[in-house]
Amino acid sequence: MTSLIFSAIASEHAEALQSGSPDAYGQEPERLTSSGAGMPCRHCLNVITEGEELLVLAYRPFPELQPYAETGPIFLHAQACRRYDACDILPPILETSPDYILRGYGHDDRIVYGTGAVTAQRDIASRAKELLARQDIAYIHVRSSRNNCYQCRIDRAPSAFSSERTVT
Predict the structure, then answer these.
(1) Domain annotation covers residue 1
(2) Do residues 124 and 142 make contact, with C-beta atoms less than 8 angstroms apart?
(3) What residue numbers bound the domain in which 71 lies?
(4) pTM, whole model, 2 decimals?
(5) Could you tell me whether strands 99-105 and 53-59 are parallel, antiparallel, or unpaired per DSSP bridges?
(6) Model confidence pLDDT, tens digit, residues 76-117
(7) DSSP states along 9-42
(8) Nearest Cα to 18, choosing from 39, 46, 41, 38?
C-alpha cells in the first residue's frame, strides 16, 4: 500500500519570501492581516488565524516555465512558521472545505490527462493512493475546487526497499 507525503512549499522558499524576495511574477509579496477565514498558509499547512499578518503572492509550484506550469495566488504567514511534515495525515488546511481538485502530474511536470477530479475531502487519501499507484504519475497537486488555488502536493513515501526519492 502506498504511503503519502503531503508536501508544503520548501522552507528555503518560504523564508526567502518572508524576507522580501520577489514572487513568481517578480513582485514583492503583499502584506495583509488575516480575517481568520479561508487563508491557508502553504508552508505550515494551517489556517492563518485572525489578526496574524500574512503575505499574498504569486506562486508557481513547478521547477521551470512550460505550458502546464500554472501560477496563482497563495497565502503565507508573514512570520516564520514550521513546515508541515507528516505522512498519511491530512493537513489542517484540507479540513476547511468539503472537496478539492486532485490532479496527477507526470515525471515531466505536465498534467496527466484524465486524472483531474473534484474529490470529497474524506476521499483525498484513497484517491491519491489510487493515482500514485500508476507509474505515469510522479506526484499530485491538491487545489481548491472553488478557485483552483494550489494547496499542497502529494508524493509517494519512499519505500524502505526501493531507491525512490521524494522531491519537495
Answers:
(1) no
(2) yes
(3) 9-77
(4) 0.90
(5) unpaired
(6) 999 999 999 888 889 999 998 999 999 999 999 999 999 999
(7) PPHHHHHHHHTT---TTS-PPEEEE--SSS-BBT
(8) 41
